[in-house]
Structure formats: structure tokens, C-alpha cells
């Protein structure tokens, strides 16, 4: 007997490539048919077969307060009554721009877009426009969305697709993307020596979370700040995951580093499709209509999306204790996983982000992440799912902990991890 999810997947495959609207959702690397989700509340998601799961995907990051937070939902419902989109400026766009600058003072000006991909693509165009340079440096295993020039040695779903670069990206375009090793200063120095004065920007996930979670080594982000400043290149922090998650002011607050440009997504949209990029005023003044870097959007700054974002940021502001609680819960979960598996795994954790890598190596970059036994991860994933716990369907993604995860949820999760580890 097929489950509802299996039936829906079969039908979806007829109309949607791979049956999904984003590749990792197909569960390709964990040997299962995906669960189709009907609804979600707090720390739980519910599938079409009526099964309930403690959710550690949290829609890949937006759900820092848990699913369907009442205050946010009520505000969104009220906003809908006033109209879904106007294509004209609104008070709410000003309000969220002010909130962003208040949290991340490096973002003196910002622009709303509709996804993290768009935010990064636009930030890079602004960096190129401002510096008059073409090359960018990214890190192997970091993911910055699916725009052409950034699908070079990218993380996230690109890893499990086993393609280093996407088909359909002209070589002449990808050649402007230079790739360095995460946490490896020497690899960055080499590029800056070889391309002196030609690099527009370094883009980095200040905490890498798309090859699994890999925190920066002490001094690495400071080094990136220094080398860009010396060369006249810009430093772009891709805080699509870390923004409002590591700290109210994101990784730049957590590590006390001021990037030139920042990209945001996920939490800033409170569950709606939103991305943002922004930074130093003189750079953002290059963007149209002020400057010659063109960037626009029919639905950018959409009033419903802005409402969800504003309410989420305001709730986080009203409950600053959330961050310490998240850190405590996540550290507890990480420690329990270390104790359960011993040196068979490497558990990386920072703030409310963590990954359990099935390797006995320290995971500090893409190469060490790739030493993980992905078959073990797949078995772990299936065991957890069968016992009511939803993890990311790939070794190379983060676990997201939300404010809605109770101590009881964490205890139950630890029990299932222990059962799996002892089998
Ligand atoms: N940057 C980072 C660091 C991300 O994690 C992601 C998505 N997971 C993106 C950019 C792209 O965002 P989106 O999927 O909203 O286009």
C-alpha cells in the first residue's frame, strides 16, 4: 500500500521536475520517498498521512520562532485585507529597512528582493559596479543561491547532485568566480596575489552552513576583512542563514566584524519569500535609481512579506533571551550526540545551528566534510524520520533549532539518537 505522500510524489513527478520545486526536497541522497507536508505548528510538522514530526529543518532557517507563530499569522491575515501587492512604496518597507539598520549598523541602506539568491546576485552586481572590477572570490562548499556565477563549487543540494558546477552556465561567465578553501588563509592570499586589483569582492558565509555547519577558525573572518581592505576589494557577508539567528545582529555582531555588504533572507521574511542586500551608503548609492547598477522587482517589498518579517523581528527584539535559550538547547543536543556516537562522528555547533558529520575527522572545510559516510547519514536520517524526527535529507545541511523546540522535544530527540547510536 502506497502512502499518501508516495502517491502525491508519483503524481508530482509527472508535472514538476523530480516532483519538487527545489532539489534537496526529493530526498535523493537518503534513499526515501519524500514526505509531503500538510501543515506545521510550533516545533512540529504534519504530513499528508497524518504523521507528526519534531522538525529540525524549520523551512531551512526562517522558522526561528517555530512554525505558524500566532502573532505573525494574525498580522499577516490583517495585512491581506488591505491588499496583496501595490507595486508602490509603503510605510512597511521603511519600517523594515529601519529595523535592519538598527540590528546591523553596517547596512546603512538596504534593498528588498524576493529570495536569498536574488539578494546575493544583486549584492555582487553592486560590488562590481562600485569597484569597477569583475572577479569575485567564493569558498568551496559555500552556497550563495543558484545564480549563474555562484554555482561554482557550491554547497547545499549541489553537493549531493555530484556536480561541481551547473550545466547551463557559460564558462566565460563562471571564469570570473575564483574559488578558495574555507578556513584557509593561504588559498585566499594566492588569489589576491594572482589577481591583484581585479577582485571586486569576497563573498563568504561567515558560518558555513551549506556543507553542513562549519564555523570559521579564530581569525579567519578578521583576515578576510584585512585582505579585502588592503586590496580595495569589498567583503560581502552572506547572512541568509546567520542573519538574526546567531545574534540579533547576525554573524557580524557575533564576531564583531563589519562587512561592506550583507545579504539576508529566511528570517528577515518571517516565512515569506524575502531577501535583502545592503551595506555602506556609498556602495548602495550605486544602485538604480540613484546609480548605474540596475536592479528591480515587481513584488519587491511586498506588503504581506514585509508584515511577516517585521512581526518576526519585533518578536525577537521583545524576547532577547531567545538567543541564550537557543544556544543552550542546541549545545545540549550537540553534547548528547557526541556522547552517544563517541569519536565515530564530528558534531559542529554554533548558536542554534549544528551538524552531525559521520566522520572521525575534524570538519573544518569542504574536503573534510566530504570524508563523511553519507550512507551512515542516510541510515540515521531514515531512523530518525521513522521515529518522528525530521532532519535535513542530506549530510551537507544544517540542523535548525527554534524557540518552539521544548526541553521535552530535545529529550525525545536525544533518546532516538541514542537508540540509533547503540544499534
Ligand atoms: N545564501 C545562503 C547562505 C543560503 O543558505 C541560501 C539558501 N539556503 C541562499 C543564499 C539562497 O537563498 P534562496 O534559497 O532564498 O534563494
Automatic annotation (TrEMBL):
Its cofactor is pyridoxal 5'-phosphate. Its EC number is 5.4.3.8. It comes from Coprococcus hominis. It holds the Pfam family Aminotran_3. CDD domains: OAT_like (cd00610). The keyword Cell membrane does not apply. The modification N6-(pyridoxal phosphate)lysine is found at residue 266. One of its GO terms (molecular function) is glutamate-1-semialdehyde 2,1-aminomutase activity. InterPro entries: 4pyrrol_synth_GluAld_NH2Trfase (IPR004639), Aminotrans_3 (IPR005814), Aminotrans_3_PPA_site (IPR049704), PyrdxlP-dep_Trfase (IPR015424), PyrdxlP-dep_Trfase_major (IPR015421), PyrdxlP-dep_Trfase_small (IPR015422). Homodimer. It catalyses: (S)-4-amino-5-oxopentanoate = 5-aminolevulinate. It is found in: Cytoplasm. Keywords: Cytoplasm, Isomerase, Porphyrin biosynthesis, Pyridoxal phosphate. The keyword Cell wall biogenesis/degradation does not apply. Belongs to the class-III pyridoxal-phosphate-dependent aminotransferase family. HemL subfamily. The gene is hemL. Pathway: Porphyrin-containing compound metabolism; protoporphyrin-IX biosynthesis; 5-aminolevulinate from L-glutamyl-tRNA(Glu): step 2/2. It comes from the Bacteria. This is Glutamate-1-semialdehyde 2,1-aminomutase.
Amino acid at each position: 500500500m502506497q502512502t499518501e505522500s508516495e502517491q502525491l510524489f508519483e503524481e508530482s513527478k509527472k508535472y514538476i521536475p523530480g516532483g519538487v520545486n527545489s532539489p534537496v526536497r526529493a530526498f535523493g541522497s537518503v534513499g526515501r520517498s519524500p514526505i509531503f507536508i500538510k501543515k506545521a505548528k510550533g516545533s512540529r510538522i504534519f504530513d499528508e498521512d497524518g504523521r507528526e514530526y519534531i522538525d529540525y529543518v524549520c523551512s531551512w532557517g526562517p522558522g526561528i520562532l517555530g512554525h505558524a507563530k500566532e502573532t505573525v499569522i494574525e498580522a499577516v491575515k490583517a495585512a491581506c485585507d488591505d491588499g496583496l501587492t501595490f507595486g508602490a512604496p509603503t510605510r512597511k518597507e521603511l519600517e523594515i529597512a529601519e529595523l535592519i539598520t538598527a540590528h546591523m549598523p553596517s547596512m546603512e541602506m538596504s534593498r528588498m528582493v524576493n529570495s536569498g539568491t536574488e539578494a546575493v546576485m544583486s549584492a555582487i552586481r553592486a560590488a562590481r559596479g562600485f569597484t569597477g572590477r569583475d572577479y569575485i572570490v567564493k569558498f568551496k562548499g559555500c552556497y550563495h543561491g543558484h545564480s549563474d556565477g555562484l554555482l561554482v563549487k557550491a554547497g547545499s543540494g549541489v553537493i549531493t547532485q555530484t556536480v561541481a558546477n551547473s550545466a547551463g552556465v557559460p564558462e566565460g561567465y563562471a571564469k570570473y568566480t575564483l574559488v578558495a578553501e574555507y578556513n584557509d588563509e593561504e588559498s585566499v592570499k594566492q588569489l589576491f596575489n594572482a589577481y591583484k586589483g581585479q577582485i571586486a569582492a569576497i563573498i563568504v558565509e561567515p558560518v558555513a552552513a551549506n556543507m553542513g555547519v562549519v564555523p570559521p577558525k579564530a581569525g579567519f573572518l578578521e583576515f578576510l576583512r584585512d585582505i579585502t581592505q588592503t586590496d580595495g576589494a569589498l567583503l560581502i557577508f552572506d547572512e541568509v542563514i546567520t542573519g538574526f539567528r546567531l545574534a540579533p545582529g547576525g554573524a557580524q555582531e557575533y564576531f564583531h566584524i563589519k562587512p561592506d555588504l550583507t545579504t539576508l533572507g529566511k528570517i528577515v521574511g518571517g516565512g515569506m519569500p524575502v531577501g535583502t542586500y545592503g551595506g555602506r551608503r556609498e556602495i548602495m548609492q550605486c544602485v538604480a535609481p540613484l546609480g548605474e547598477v540596475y536592479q528591480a522587482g515587481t513584488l519587491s517589498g511586498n506588503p504581506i512579506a514585509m508584515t511577516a518579517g517585521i512581526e518576526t523581528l519585533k518578536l525577537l527584539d521583545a524576547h532577547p533571551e531567545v538567543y541564550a535559550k537557543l544556544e543552550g538547547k542546541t549545545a545540549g543536543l550537540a553534547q548528547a550526540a557526541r556522547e552517544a556516537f563517541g569519536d565515530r562522528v564530528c558534531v559542529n555547533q554554533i548558536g542554534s545551528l549544528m551538524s552531525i558529520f559521520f566522520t572521525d575527522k575534524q570538519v573544518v572545510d569542504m574536503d573534510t566534510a566530504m570524508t563523511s559516510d553519507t550512507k551512515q547519514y542516510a541510515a540515521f536520517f531514515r531512523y530518525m524520520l521513522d521515529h518522528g524526527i525530521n532532519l535535513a535529507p542530506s549530510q551537507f545541511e544544517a540542523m535548525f533549532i527554534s524557540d518552539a523546540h521544548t526541553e521535552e522535544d530535545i529529550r525525545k530527540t536525544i533518546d532516538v539518537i541514542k537508540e540509533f547510536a547503540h544499534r
